[in-house]
């Protein structure tokens, strides 16, 4: 499973960087979305994947009886997803407003602040 | 129970939430802005006092013992940064009363300001690396919204660059945290430091160190990743610029200091060498960028970049004296840079422009403002007896002692060029005779007595801080020295966090 995930993550990062290097601001935001998803998958994979062993402690015991999956990476990914969702919705609104004001979808036309 | 460790985060959060409740009551929001930031300043002083008396303070959230729960840790360096946050927050809140228009206030300027302060204070106090990421995001989201309040064309263009680069750095940071967790299986920074010293593969540690360096380097606006800063910092209302200039990049610098003194200090020959050259190029590119500019706030923005270089140099040399210099430089820089932005806003209020070519003759009409500009400007360039002299002196002396002559030469040269930029502003804005008024200049409302007070009070207060640091160098030096001692000896931080297993509930 891990090699497959590694390949998927690599493709996601590469696609994201490629999209961010385009001039269109819509593609820029798509790149950001892919990038945050790639990071989430990376956390999930690098922390180790365990199949079919939920981290449950049987009644009466004080610790799990066998090797279980680590629940923490899932909590981290959940937090990161929520944050990325908020930030990306902001980015979508931002490019819409920017398009309305600048009247262009092209980053090369946004040079007023670079003089 | 030490409430002062958590209060600097809780107070701005509560003040922000309460301001949201008073969405339509402008007066209540304004009172809360001053009251909330004032309370933040007082508790931060309380925190600094307790930390310097009792050593590193630790608070375990929810009473979960150290590696399992989230720890809040206040060492001297963190406490100093929180005090600076309080000072800047209070000054900017006062200044906002006069400069933030009704339109911006109606769209939630004050709640966002509190949220930003909460994020900054949280980043300074947390002892958990994933929690640091969360506080970074709290701070970033607030800063995104503050940056585009008013939605002018320049703001939108600046914001796209700012948002993209900062999100990129957050993702790199998050990926590095994920890989780090995969390696050591913990998120508590003290615990990471402990376990990382037992890890065999040092190559992987170096990779992680460089990932953290890039992530925080973007946030700190270090070379070669600084270009988002001068593209965006001059676009929002000036109170927002001042708040950003004082605090945001310094959170990146703080994170660099924390991570490279506590966690990644195994292979300083490699990582710190990169930092030395990064610091030198940051100083040089920032100051040369500023030399070409003729817009008040853009000159100041480029100087933020060049000053960041000095702080990173303090970390990169990694000797006791250099770290003292780095901490001292941060204290000096935050106050001075915010003050310069506040002065630029005052000039804009009087003459309606930030363009140096359209300004002039302010020394004749407002001599006091001219003096108040000179204090931070000369301090920034490193003139004795102001705060910048001692800050530069310590860093440069540390450079000579470490025999890093190339980068020390750059530091001296950049000091000279900074002086050139400041003199340029002085000559253009205050000294030369005002240019002929153009055809359709908008009439500016005269500044009322009350506005005058709200504008002058923070500028005078911050200028007094600069003079105080300059004339009182010794106690401030000792404070910086004590905090550098703590930074250089990570076992004290680790012991404080790991031995404090939380108080057992009765």
TrEMBL record, chain A:
Pfam families: Oxidored_q2 (PF00420). Signal peptide: none annotated. It comes from the Bacteria. Keywords: Cell membrane, Membrane, Transmembrane, Transmembrane helix. The keyword ATP-binding does not apply. InterPro entries: CPA3_antiporter_subunitC, NUOK/Mnh_C1-like. It is a multi-pass membrane protein. The chain crosses the membrane at residues 6-21, 28-49, 75-95. It is found in: Cell membrane. Belongs to the CPA3 antiporters (TC 2.A.63) subunit C family. NCBIfam families: PRK09094.1, PRK12659.1. PANTHER family: ANTIPORTER SUBUNIT MNHC2-RELATED. This is Multisubunit sodium/proton antiporter, MrpC subunit. It comes from Aidingimonas halophila.
From TrEMBL, chain B:
Residues 128-416 form the NADH:quinone oxidoreductase/Mrp antiporter transmembrane domain. Its main location: membrane. The chain crosses the membrane at residues 6-23, 30-48, 68-95, 107-126, 132-150, 162-184, 204-229, 241-263, 275-296, 308-331, 368-395, 407-427, 453-471. One of its GO terms (cellular component) is plasma membrane. Keywords: Cell membrane, Membrane, Transmembrane, Transmembrane helix. Pfam families: Proton_antipo_M (PF00361). It is a multi-pass membrane protein. One of its GO terms (molecular function) is NADH dehydrogenase (ubiquinone) activity. GO terms for biological process: ATP synthesis coupled electron transport. It is found in: Cell membrane; Membrane. Belongs to the CPA3 antiporters (TC 2.A.63) subunit D family. This is Multisubunit sodium/proton antiporter, MrpD subunit. It comes from Aidingimonas halophila. The lineage of its organism: Bacteria, Pseudomonadati, Pseudomonadota, Gammaproteobacteria, Oceanospirillales.
């Amino acid at each position: 499973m891990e090699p497959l995930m590694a390949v998927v993550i690599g493709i996601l990062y590469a696609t994201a960087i490629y999209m961010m290097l385009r001039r269109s601001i819509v593609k820029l935001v798509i790149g950001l979305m892919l990038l945050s998803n790639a990071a989430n998958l990376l956390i999930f994979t690098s922390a180790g994947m365990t199949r079919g062993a939920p981290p449950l402690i049987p009644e009466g015991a004080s610790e799990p009886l066998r090797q279980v999956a680590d629940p923490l990476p899932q909590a981290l990914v959940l937090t990161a997803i929520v944050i990325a969702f908020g930030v990306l919705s902001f980015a979508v609104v931002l490019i819409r407003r920017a398009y309305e004001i600048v009247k262009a979808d092209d980053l090369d036309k946004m040079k007023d602040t670079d003089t | 129970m030490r409430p002062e460790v958590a209060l600097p985060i809780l107070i701005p959060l509560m003040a922000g939430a309460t301001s949201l409740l008073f969405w339509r009551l402008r007066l209540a929001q304004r009172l809360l802005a001053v009251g909330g930031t004032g309370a933040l300043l007082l508790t931060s002083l309380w925190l600094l006092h307790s930390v310097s008396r009792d050593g590193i303070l630790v608070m375990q959230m929810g009473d979960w013992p150290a590696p399992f729960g989230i720890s809040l840790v206040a060492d001297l360096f963190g406490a100093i940064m929180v005090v600076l946050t309080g000072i800047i927050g209070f000054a900017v809140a006062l200044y906002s009363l006069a400069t933030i228009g009704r339109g911006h206030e109606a769209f939630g300027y004050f709640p966002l300001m509190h949220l930003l302060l909460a994020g900054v204070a949280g980043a300074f106090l947390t002892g958990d690396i994933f929690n640091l990421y969360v506080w970074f995001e709290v701070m970033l989201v607030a800063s995104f919204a503050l940056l585009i309040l008013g939605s002018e064309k320049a703001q939108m263009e600046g914001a796209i660059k700012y948002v993209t680069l900062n999100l990129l750095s957050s993702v790199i940071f998050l990926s590095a945290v994920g890989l780090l967790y995969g390696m050591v299986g913990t998120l508590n920074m003290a615990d990471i430091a402990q376990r990382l010293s037992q890890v065999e593969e040092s190559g992987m540690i170096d990779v992680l160190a460089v990932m953290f360096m890039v992530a925080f380097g973007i946030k700190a606006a270090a070379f070669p990743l600084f270009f988002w800063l001068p593209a965006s910092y001059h676009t929002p209302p000036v109170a927002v610029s001042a708040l950003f200039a004082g605090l945001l990049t310094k959170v990146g610098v703080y994170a660099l200091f924390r991570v490279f003194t506590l966690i990644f200090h195994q292979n300083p020959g490699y990582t710190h060498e990169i930092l030395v050259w990064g610091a030198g190029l940051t100083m040089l590119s920032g100051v040369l960028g500023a030399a070409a500019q003729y817009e008040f706030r853009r000159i100041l923005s480029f100087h933020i970049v060049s000053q960041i270089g000095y702080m990173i140099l303090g970390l990169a040399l990694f000797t006791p004296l250099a770290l003292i210099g780095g901490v001292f430089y941060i204290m000096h820089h935050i106050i001075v840079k915010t003050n310069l932005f506040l002065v630029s806003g005052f000039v804009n209020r009087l003459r309606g422009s930030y363009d140096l070519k359209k300004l002039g003759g302010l020394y004749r009409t407002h001599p006091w403002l001219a003096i108040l500009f000179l204090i931070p400007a000369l301090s920034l360039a490193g003139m004795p007896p102001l705060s910048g002299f001692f800050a530069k002196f310590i860093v440069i002396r540390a450079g000579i002692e470490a025999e890093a002559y190339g980068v020390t030469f750059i530091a001296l040269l950049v000091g000279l060029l900074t002086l050139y930029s400041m003199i340029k502003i002085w000559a253009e804005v205050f000294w030369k005779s005002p240019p002929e008024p153009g055809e359709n200049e908008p009439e500016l409302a005269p500044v009322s007595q009350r506005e005058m007070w709200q504008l002058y009070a923070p500028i005078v207060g911050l200028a007094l801080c600069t003079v105080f640091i300059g004339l009182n160098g010794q106690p401030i030096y000792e404070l910086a020295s004590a905090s550098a001692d703590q930074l250089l000896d990570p076992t004290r931080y680790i012991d404080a966090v790991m031995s404090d297993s939380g108080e057992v509930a009765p």
